[in-house]
Request: fold
Amino acid sequence: MNHEQAPKRKLLAVFAHPDDESFICGGTMAKYASEGVEITLVSATKGDMGRRMGNPPYLNRETMALAREQELREACDCLGIGRLIFFGIRDKTVEFEDEASLIGRIESLIREVEPDVVLTFHERYGGHPDHCAIGKAATAAFRRSADKGALYYITFGDAMERPERYGYTKKDVVRVDVQAHNAAKLAAFRAHRCQTEIDEWVWQSDKAALTRFGKYEYFLKGDVNATQRANDDLF
Amino acid sequence: MIPINRMEAEAELRKFIGAEAYVHSEATSFLFVRNFKVRVTHAFIAGEGSFRAALRFDGHGWLRMEALTHFEVDGQGRLLLAGYDDRGRMNVALHLGREPFPE
Reply:
């Protein structure tokens, strides 16, 4: 077994807020990082308009950006994400950014990184206006620039266990087994302290907290016509 | 941020009377306004436990906010007032500074 010659696999994740990478797909991040995949994460904002200010609260609106930036850096260490880029957009305003320039920024990043896999939010099912806006821009950028690679949309929890409910079929879904990486995911949850202090379960014993995580994380294929890939692996 | 003492917080708010102030105000789940500039003419804090703040400005304007619980004067001389619920979630914020807040 000689992997020396194998080209580095690369993953680019384009998300909106610190914690998206951990709360939604932290197990997958940790899994691929542990396999040597180079991961680049974009967080469009610093989550500076969040509502959870610690419990009891120790943040205010003006201290939040720096606190959440530091939390995200720590979470990246927990998950094995090697490169972190902030776009510097104010939280809750991504949909009001100039779309062409936002697409352009992501497009140049895709050309620079040359990722095998791009992850972002679905532009309609993102669940938050910032999510939908960054997902829409990243999808457009991917269509323009990716000569190779595959686009996937991250999904919440076990929703895609039954994709029929959302008008999709099993064929449209990749299910990644993350069980072996839920400990790293839990560490990342705890790194996002001001956001998770309100959730008592996160701070129970590791054993108790880990029972809250599913065995799988689910991704929607961004291009249903792409060559059929394995349904348990993004690469 | 420390629990609001009405007298102290009102004294801090009143320091902005007669001056141009940049204001950040928000009802967290609904709206925010960042960096509108007003000349403050009157400043009030009322209530106990949970407080109301009110500003009159520019000879024709009002800003009133309720559910404030905490305040501080930060290292840059800005007055930060906020309302948290019992689990640390922000409901409202009202910040005044003599310089614009970072955009």
